[in-house]
Amino acid sequence: MDLRISSSTTPLTGAGAARRALAPQGAETDVGFSGALKGALQSVSAAQNRSTDLQREVQMENPSVSLEETMVAIQKAQIGFQATLHVRNRMVQAYTDIMNMQV
């Protein structure tokens, strides 16, 4: 029984070329896991920045910013951060498991 993995990456390269061909001109070509992770981290960072700005406005008693809106923004930022932390912990655990595998 042969358990070797073929080194042919033709299906993967073809899929990447197809994605690049379908992408509109001038659009980002960073697709896949790294692009999704980068987008998610930027989204979490933006949510944290927004909640910080809203907190500052509430503290300065800005009448156009409501306390409810601020609390919802804080909760969204907290949930996003916790999700990011869980993803990071799972990735570190997967990396550790892979590195501990016997070859």
Quick recap:
This protein is mainly α.
Query: What would the average pLDDT be, to the nearest integer?
Result: 80
Largest sheet: none
Low-confidence stretches: 1-15
- Strand tally is 0
Radius of gyration: 21 Å
Instruction: Note the run of SSEs as H and E.
Output: HHH
**What class would the helix/strand composition place it in?**
mainly alpha
Roughly how many Å apart are the termini?
18 Å
**Residues in helix, %:** over 70%
In DSSP terms (H or I, runs of 4 or more residues), the helix count works out at: 3
Principal-axis shape: elongated
Strand content: under 5%
Protein architecture, described:
The chain is mainly alpha-helical and 103 residues long. It contains three helices and no strands. It has a domain at 29-99. The two termini are 18 Å apart. Residues 1-15 have low confidence and may be disordered.
Secondary structure: elements and pairs:
Blueprint: H1 10-22, H2 33-59, H3 67-99
Helix pairs in contact: 2-3
Q: Keywords, please?
A:
103 residues, mainly alpha, elongated
